[in-house]
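Suppose you are handed only these lines of text.
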Amino acid sequence: MKHLAAVNKYFWKYKSRLIFGIIFIILSNYFRILSPQVSGYVVDKVTKAIKLKNGLPIVNKPRNINYDILVKQLINWVEDGNVSFGNTIVLSGITLLVLALLGGFFMFLMRQTIIVMSRHIEYDQKNEVYQHYQKLDIAFYKTHSTGDLMNRISEDIGRVRMYTGPAVMYVINLSATIAFSVYFMIKENAELTMYVLAPLPILTITIYTVNTIIHKKSEKIQSLLSGLTTTAQESYSGIRVIKSFVQEGAMMRFFKENSNLYKKNAIGLAKVEAIYFPSMALLIGVSTLLTISIGGWYHYSHHLPEVSAGTITEFVIYVNLLTFPVTALGWTASMIQRAAASQKRLNEFLQTVPTVSDNHCVPIPTINGDIEFNNVSFTYPHTGIKAITNFNLTIKEGQKVLIIGRTGSGKSTLAQLLLRFYNPSQGNIKIGGHPLISIPLSQLRNGISYVPQDVFLFSDTVSNNIGFGMASMPNQESIEQAAKFASIHNEIMNFDKQYETMIGERGVTLSGGQKQRIAIARSLIKNPEVVVFDDCLSAVDAKTESEIINNFYQYLENKTAIVITHRIFSTFRFDNIIVLDGGSIIEQGTHEDLIRLNGYYAELYRLQLTRNEPIEV
Ligand code: ADP
Ligand code: MG
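From them, the structure of the protein bound to adenosine-5'-diphosphate can be written out as follows.
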């Protein structure tokens, strides 16, 4: 329960709705609780009339002594005003109808306030969680699966909503119903009250127990279902692999097994549910039966002569009014338990402090392209892999630097350190003379255009993908300009709807090279001080590649550019070429320097010349 204290701030935020909700619940219950009394009065009135007619002795009950003030007034008015028997019955009927309408009306308002409040809280919580997701660093995402992240924002918050909405409503409703009905029941007859209420706790406990079983079973079913979905999903996306390895049969058997397990569990759940409702009805029936038999016995044995047919009627209706809230208590209890478990998970997550944050950073005047790596070392936190060792590099504003090295040599890690996705384990990085950790993340990342190795495009139009990083949508001209620099314009013009073509699942499927070039266009349009291209030309053919690189002369004239590759571009004059291996620099200099050095780079270059194509390291 203590975990749920975290949502109290929201109750406070929506306190007026909550207070009105409570008032409406009380009013709704108040009007509903009057109807047993009116019914009791009418039944007594009718029995009395029948007895009088048949000349039977009547027990004179003190008039309406135990009723609510409103009912009392109505009865006094009827009795003293000499309203005829028939009219009394009609009047009581109308009163019952009005009471039901009033009760219903306030119940409507109660749902309108409390359930609506819970939807507001759900919305706020989703935003809170989403905002936190955005703040968390890349390392967090590496250690949490997408499914886990999705669950928190949808399922867990959904469960907490069951607490802030229905559970809160039912608990208040139950308290009000119990308070009102037990008050009037005891006032009427304490002994009978005791007998009548005896089965209700059993009902609550039974429902709670059965509910827990149902919940466990449905949890199991849920996880089986998600396993089933994953299997199905994988076989759709991996269909080419499955077919080419002729594994359709094996996949089918695997799916069938999973599917069978799911079916068995689902049928098991249906059985428990089938017992649930009849047993509930049975217990409610027992309560009613007890009321009638014990009340009847009291009446006929003259043990308690004031227990009249009217009293019994009244009690039967009270019991029926009580059963729903008491039943609800059973599942409200398990609902609250589940909400607490979910909120616990949410709290744990919300308390995760990002290791990369800019809490005490103040914006610097401008980002310029002077970059310094001072003795930087970096070890990936959760794997312990040392990716960068004692790395030193100075890049002057406007320089174009090529970083080359085999896969796993630490090139991408360098780019990510520069964007401060991670903090270096040792040493420091400066940009424009300012340490990275003193620059607000938004300013730093706005100043650098980064095209990651694994480009990602959204399922949106080409132009929206290119304009993604801009504060406002850039005009068509600049979008096209960027696309031209990225050598993708002509291909876009051949698409059906050109720049308005949808990309991804909802639209055209792009080749790897096309995706990379759209991502490059997206980075160029930002017009930043520094560009970092992480191996983003790997899927582009040699001719287009040199076209793009040559555009750099024009587009990146005064900008600092870091191009990461595992192939050589000989046509572009890089100011400095870094050969990286095992996280350290093994060679550096201009193209001529490195050829003269006749080391690793020179050998690569010779290989490339003999094959007459860019060479992969
Ligand atoms: P490159 O880009 O040159 O291929 P990376 O910088 O991606 O190399 O990787 C350098 C080393 O760090 C490799 O040994 C790789 O396995 C490891 N590495 C890369 N990314 C991660 C990560 N997110 N978590 C743990 N280790 C990583
Ligand atoms: Mg890489």
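What can we learn from it? The pocket of adenosine-5'-diphosphate (ligand 1) is lined by residues 142, 380, 383, 385, 387, 405, 407-413 (CB under 6 Å). The CA atoms of residues 379 and 449 lie 24 Å apart.
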